[in-house]
Amino acid sequence: MTLGAAALLAALLFVAANLWVLGRTHSRIEQTLPMCGGERVGIVFGTSHWTRSGVRNPYFDARMSASARLLRLGRVDHLLLSGDNRTRFYNEPVTMWRDLRGRQVADADMTLDYAGFSTFDTLVRARDVFGVEEAVLITQAWHLPRALYIADAVGLEVTGCAVPSPSRRVSGEWRLQAREWVARVAILGDLYLWGREPHFLGPLEPLEVAPPFWEAWLFPEMPETPAR
């Protein structure tokens, strides 16, 4: 009976923690891509270009397609591409950069963060290394509640842009969803119990965000606006 009661309590706390994160963030998630943004900076979270089965990762393609479209629509002015680069054989930021160049995104509109080893690292580094204060987070809908919650905790003013779902069914999607439920609980411990820190920081290197073309035409003498 004691073990059963403990298991029930743990299950209730698990569900309550997830509902807390979802409840605190759902109102700031935009599901319609053209309505996303309105901020100078879009933060794009890295993921593998390929799946374990050797095919292109539809989640990667969705993030890149949405990011390029947000730039074209003028909903963001600059993209911070943050991902894992633990070894020279695996480099998420460069892969994102190459893909976006193929989608006609200019180099001046992208900054690469090579130490975005996790959602937490990406957001703390956006604040402390790249001087970002306000941004739109670009990723899948199931990832956004955790990302938004972390951003709130570290003092960023953000909204979430849910990229469109893949047109084809993705094998193992249920595992990603289940892992995200666990990750939401874990991040509460990281933020409030054991004081997690990012793997690497560094000196402040504020993003150089080029003004929109219309602003540069109307106000040619105005300096570039710092990232917010």
Automatic annotation (TrEMBL):
Lipid bilayer topology: Single-pass membrane protein
Keywords, comma-separated and alphabetical: Cell inner membrane, Cell membrane, Membrane, Transmembrane, Transmembrane helix
Cited InterPro entries: Cell_Envelope_Assoc, DUF218
Protein name, entry field: ElyC/SanA/YdcF family protein
Species this chain originates from: Halomonas mongoliensis
Domain DUF218: 43-182
Subcellular location: Cell inner membrane
UniProt feature coiled coil, ranges: none
Physiological role: Participates in the barrier function of the cell envelope.
